[in-house]
Specification:
The chain has 131 residues and is an all-beta fold. The protein is built from no helices and 10 strands.
């Protein structure tokens, strides 16, 4: 789920206008809610929520753009990781390479050692426009 503001409202897709001058990147926020259909209030994990033992949560984007890549996730770039049940990371049009088009995000929970997927979120699509 995504939103132009960090307090929502969160949606399954979002369209934002690119800022080509790079001085004022357009921020947006992505929320991954563990075992929920809707974003929790304030996009915070429930008290006491934990990831399965020996796992890490990744926020990934496709195309990878300038994000770091991992061999266990071909075609996707990692823009953030967390050892907790929630992940907060600033994102902007610069994170996606400042190009018009669609960027797909997903949250994955992976085995820390092998990188094998334990769980994957429903994808969220962000469309960058020039108008």
């Amino acid at each position: 789920l995504g939103a132009p503001e960090n307090d929502g409202p969160y949606r399954r897709a979002l369209a934002l206008k690119l800022d080509f001058n790079g001085k004022d990147p357009i921020p947006f926020y992505v929320c991954a809610a563990w075992d929920r259909q809707r974003a929790p209030a304030g996009c915070k994990a429930a008290a006491g929520a934990k990831l399965p033992a020996d796992t890490v949560m990744r926020l990934e984007q496709r195309p990878a753009g300038p994000a770091s890549t991992n061999p266990d996730s071909p075609g996707w770039g990692t823009v953030g990781t967390s050892d907790d049940a929630e992940l907060e990371i600033p994102l902007s049009n610069l994170t996606t390479g400042n190009r018009p088009g669609k960027v797909t995000y997903r949250a994955t929970v992976r085995n820390r050692e092998s990188g094998d997927v334990v769980a994957t979120s429903v994808p969220f699509v962000l469309t960058w426009t020039t108008s």
